[in-house]
Amino acid sequence: MNRRLRRIVMVALTAAALTLTGCAAGAESPTPTATADASGSTVSGTLTVYAAASLSGAFDEIGAAFTEANPDVDVSGVYDGSSTLVTQLREGAPADVFASADEANMQKLEDAAVDPTLFASNTLVIAVPTGNPGGVETLADLADVTTVLCAPEVPCGAASATLLSNAGVAVEASSLEQNVTAVLTKVAAGEADAGLVYATDVIDRDDVEVIVPDGAGEVVNHYPIAALSEAQNPAAAEAFVAFVLSDEGQRILADFGFGAP
């Protein structure tokens, strides 16, 4: 399957089940203080974005596009499981923006997150090594092969638990990983026969095969983003959030397989 067709298929699988929901309320947005430069940009300086591991590819591209529009801003992305990032932020890690793979972890930041807004959504698929050595076809098969899952406190782990529970399947995972990237890495390396990952994670991969399980469309992760109240660069943080929500940001996210909020 070529790159374009594969993306179209995954976008369709993800978007078909997704619904538009509201967003959480937070503190009043900060007022930009930077002055405009010759390019017309009103922001400058360093911007640190903490984002869920599943967003790494899309946010790298969004960061590049944002920098092209704002050449005086240096964007740095930090990617990991949302729960891990929340722990780091609550312990004082310096960041300007946080994008979570679920609403529950964003809510843990309480007033530290300024007006969280939903910007994307995702669903789960079964990933197996190329050739499918375990012969996996359904969720039920995961109980009989070596399966790796995200830890339950991680958004992909919570979604996996819901998906498996809905299907009446009990899986004893060979390992519980702190982010979805680690799950996919183990599957691709042949260290597991299967794993549950996001649909966006397997686009353009030729080292894994994908099975869309029954019920996947009923378990949807909605992704919120927010500038942080303790941001070192509040003007750039506000501008970056706006860019993610813009037509250009949404186009990039859709190209990586993410659905509407």
Features:
alpha/beta; five-stranded mixed beta sheet
Q: How would you describe the overall organization of this protein?
A:
The protein has helices at about 5-15, 55-70, 80-90, 105, 155-165, 180-190, 235-245, 245-255; strands at about 45-50, 75-80, 95-100, 115-120, 125-130, 145-150, 175, 195-200, 210, 220-230. The chain has about 260 residues and is an alpha/beta fold. Helix 2 (about 55-70) runs antiparallel to helix 8 (about 245-255).
- The percent of residues in helical segments reads 25-40%
- Which sequence of strands runs across the widest sheet? 2-1-3-10-4
The CA-CA distance between the termini, in Å, is 27 Å
Largest sheet: 5 strands, mixed
Hey, roughly how much beta strand do the residues contain? 15-25%
Silhouette: elongated
- Note the total helix count: 8
Number of strands: 10
Q: C-alpha Rg, in Å? A: 19 Å
Order of helices and strands: HEHEHEHEEEHEHEEEHH
Poorly predicted parts: 1-39
Structural class: alpha/beta
Oligomer: single chain
Q: Give the overall pLDDT as a whole number.
A: 88
Helices and strands in order:
Elements: H1 3-15, E1 45-52, H2 56-69, E2 73-80, H3 82-90, E3 97-99, H4 103-107, E4 113-122, E5 124-129, E6 147-150, H5 155-166, E7 175-177, H6 180-188, E8 194-198, E9 208-211, E10 221-228, H7 234-245, H8 247-255
Parallel strand pairs: 1-2, 1-3, 6-7, 6-8
Antiparallel strand pairs: 3-10, 4-10, 5-8, 5-9
Brief summary of the model shown:
The protein has helices at about 5-15, 55-70, 80-90, 105, 155-165, 180-190, 235-245, 245-255, and strands spanning about 45-50, 75-80, 95-100, 115-120, 125-130, 145-150, 175, 195-200, 210, 220-230. It is α/β, with parallel strands linked by helices and about 260 residues long. The chain has a 5-stranded mixed β-sheet.
